[in-house]
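hey so i finally got around to running both of the ones u sent me last week. sorry it took forever, my laptop kept dying halfway thru and i had to restart like 3 times lol. anyway pasting them below in the order u listed, first the sequence line then the structure token line for each. didnt double check formatting much so if smth looks off just lmk and ill redo it

first one:
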Amino acid sequence: MVSSFDLFLERVRKATGVKTQVELGKVLGIRQSSISDAKRRGSVPADWLMKLFRTYGLNPDWLLEGASPVYLKPGASPSKGLEDEAGAGQPSSSRLVGVSSMLGREDESGQWQPEWTFHMEIPAMFHRPSVHVMQVDSVDMAPIILKGAFVGIDTMRRNIVDGEIYAFHVPREGLIIKRVFHDMHSASYRLASMDPRFSETTLTQALKEQRCVGRVVWVMQDL
């Protein structure tokens, strides 16, 4: 017999695309062992439900009992197949995700964390549990990334590939997005804007490890 906790996990997988408990832990900001403990108890902590609502707009009643609607966020359009459990096996064409400002927030350890300001739908193929969606508020990466564009930052891809675009945390200022070049001679990294009016920044290997949030893997914007 399928437990109520297993049904909860299956609904979360359908709505968010997570495939493993490790990925779910990253979405919820908890350790995998916490999920195992909750499964053993057969109960879903209330703060998990609040996190899933804030991030994805998911209805706690649907997560726990399968009761419609799937989404509670005003104006949100549910992914195809989710409103009817009978059709939930169909592939979803889109995902509802939280969108953060570039400012975000700093946690107790000083690390950057997203601060969701609203939700939007993105193509399902763009969604991954490790990808944070941001709205860009700067002009220095134009014309590749325009002000107001939405970018996906994959927090699992922090190893620098020369010439690719990454997001970096500047303490008390939020994120910056730059094209990165590895200077082999000085063992440092040059952070460059597309707009030549903005000067380059240099980071040491140690600072790169501290401040690199992830790689920009997609951009959505009006041309």
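and the second one:
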Amino acid sequence: MTSSLSTKRQRSGNQRREKALAIEPALPTRRLPSIEEVLNQTRFFGEHDHMIQYGKAFYKRKILTPKIMNFPFFAQSGLYFHHHLQFQGLEEFVCMECPYFEDLIRVFYSNLRVENGHLYTEVNKTKIEMKPADWLTIAHLKYQGQKLSFPTIPDDLPYNRDMAFSDMIRPELQGQNAKTVGAMNVNDRLLHYALVHILSPRATNFAKIMHEDTFMLWAMKNNILINWPHHIMQHMMKCKDNKMPLPYGILITQIMGYYGVDLTIDSSTVLGWTHYFGTKSLKKLNIVNVNGVWHHGGANEDDEQQPEEDIEHEEASVPDHRVEDSRPQPPIQHDAQMLSQIWGGIQHLQEGLANLNLTVTTGFDRVTERINRLEERFDTFQDSFK
């Protein structure tokens, strides 16, 4: 009997793994389509109204360049921001990669709606209904945790915007009204990069720290488990309804592949080095390692040669409070940068201790309440014999 159950479990596990592996490439065998097939865009739609909506609002909509995180590199780098992603269960999601289909992604968004935690759309006359349980198979994400919908902030979260923002700023820039990413400590800046390029992608203002950025970073740093499928669907609808560039190209391609959308006719965008968040990203962000310590470097002349939408200029990120001086500047002192990183680590430990203290205090309060209730019941029980 035990052997039979074990065999059934093994078969069931193998079937789930085979299904998950089948969508990893999300690309069937390619064939050369005819010109008529490529030009006939009625193949995208099951209803004429859907095609009209697509032509009006989505045909020319920009697709955001997806980013893929080189998680193994960061795990061995000596940085610690990736631990926040691990706690959220995002390790596999941020590493998802496959060629993506821009035309089909536009069709996906043109028919998209979200109701009661279910995602509905239709692509190439194939209907898609993505249930909460499907997120784990397709995107390696569990449908659980806090359903955050900024700007609404739950009352039970002890969030203070000013304190959260100040905690991210380098010690030497405290009190200087710094508002952009160049003033952030290294680990928070990289966590911010993952947020605005992978988790909540946007097309512009990468260097600006929005209020929503501050809140989401605070939640992740304080180990508040976020319902990421809910967050992603909300962000999809926000981008769709506000005529914004469309994010999550790789995720959407995986969804279409899982539900059997025909991907053999349309051309795909092949991934290149600009799609990856790794060593080259650190160089572009001007984050360098000196003697095992990561810190912000000086001005990087190569920044001006990078695509404008991907630049997060270090110089524009730090408030300019100095008078121009033509005299040569002294060499950068790395002691301050080392102190900054050490201070960031201390703050990280302080956050963990604060969370632990809150958890212990809450636990003691609950125990005290239960003891009080038991005492009341015991007193009542004694009174019944008098």
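quick thing i noticed on the 2nd:
The chain is about 45% helix and 5% strand.
anyway thats it, ttyl
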